[in-house]
Write a structure and sequence with these properties.
The protein has 241 residues and is an all-alpha fold. The chain is 86% helix and 0% strand. It has 8 helices and no strands. 41% of the residues are buried.
């Protein structure tokens, strides 16, 4: 027996732990994003700024900030799960795709942080100023709308960056030694929906088309997180046998 074989940890410890953590993070991400969707005001048409701003102003500051912090936590958990999953499944030929996934997911995490600073803090502050003002409402509305445009730009970029992360993860899953064709295909479908969402937001703002793409992308993202959690946990169980 060689020295390397003597000191190497058991294979179950090497392969099981990343899958276990991936499952936990994927479930956490799905839960946080689901709760955020439930808490966020969504009755008014986001493509009609005056109606949307009035609805946002009626929401309390604490509830608004909480919803957006949950969204940030959900994206953080999701991107970490993607990085861990890509690294766990990557074989000798998939290490490059795992690194691409890590870079794109990290960029998505950073973009989400800036987005929540704009949407979760700055936009709410401007909406409240506009709603409570008795003078200069037109100027305040224009300023609030400007913040809204920054939010749209960040939202579009986030969708495109996450699309790249899902694309590279999907390829990693399809080409890895222990590949999962179903999970890889779901990652590619999520990437396509996220890319369509990002393009729709960039070209038309919160239009009906963009909102439909956002819904489709969000549902596919949640489906991927839940499926990857189940798939990863099964890998842990298989390695215990």
């Amino acid at each position: 027996m060689t020295r390397a074989a003597t000191i190497a940890p058991p294979a179950t410890q090497i392969s099981g732990q990343p899958y276990r953590l991936t499952a936990v993070l994927a479930l956490l991400g799905a839960a946080l994003l689901g709760v955020r969707t439930w808490l966020h005001p969504a009755d008014a048409d986001p493509g009609v700024p005056a109606a949307a701003f009035s609805e946002y102003a009626a929401d309390g500051r604490a509830g608004w900030v909480t919803a957006h912090l949950l969204q940030f936590g959900g994206v953080a958990s999701m991107t970490l799960a993607m990085v861990l999953l890509a690294r766990a499944v990557a074989g000798p030929g998939g290490a490059a795709w795992a690194r691409v996934t890590a870079v794109c997911a990290t960029a998505g995490f950073a973009t989400a942080a800036v987005l929540q600073a704009v949407d979760g803090v700055a936009l709410k502050a401007m909406v409240d100023l506009w709603s409570s003002a008795s003078d200069d409402r037109t100027a305040l509305f224009a300023a609030t709308l400007a913040v809204r445009q920054v939010e749209i730009g960040l939202d579009a970029l986030l969708a495109l960056v996450l699309a790249a992360a899902f694309l590279s993860l999907g390829v990693a899953l399809l080409t890895a030694p222990g590949r999962s064709r179903g999970l890889g295909a779901l990652a590619l479908a999520t990437a396509a929906a996220a890319a369509a969402n990002g393009l729709a937001l960039a070209l038309g703002g919160f239009s009906d088309t963009a909102m439909l793409a956002t819904t489709a992308s969000g549902l596919l993202g949640l489906a991927f997180l839940l499926t990857s959690a189940v798939w990863s946990w099964r890998r842990v169980a298989t390695r215990r046998e």
